[in-house]
Known about the structure:
alpha+beta; Immunoglobulin-like; 3 domains; four-stranded mixed sheet; three-stranded antiparallel sheet; 1 helix; 10 strands; elongated
Amino acid sequence: MTHSNRFSRAVRFGAAMAAVAVLAAPTMGTAQSARMSVEIDQAARVQLRGPAGSVIVGNPLIADVTVVDANTLYVTGKGYGVTEIVAVDAVGRTVFQSEVVVTAGSGSGRVRVWRGGQATEMACAASCSPSLRGTSGAAPDAP
């Protein structure tokens, strides 16, 4: 093999590697990452920039995820607190990662009634009725 053939192959190999790096670069750094806030018993839509193969929820007692399609998730606030949601593509690259804070929100239409150590969540409009959330046990310890 002549020197010019080896040089030509090396140049073609280098060009091919550069092309792979350029094509792979947009997919390597596109993971969405942000803190999101969701009210309890409410849902928020998340539109992914790439298809998700798997979705992981840090604490499913705080938030839950419904996968509509490979690019659309709905995050539902299940319990007060903070957790993390991660979506990865088919080869394990992160396409979405977010800390999720579940809050009471504005509180409109909701009331918590305490009777001794028992709390009852009430849903209110013109009148109040116990919500499906029901009772939540003993009062938290005071700081």
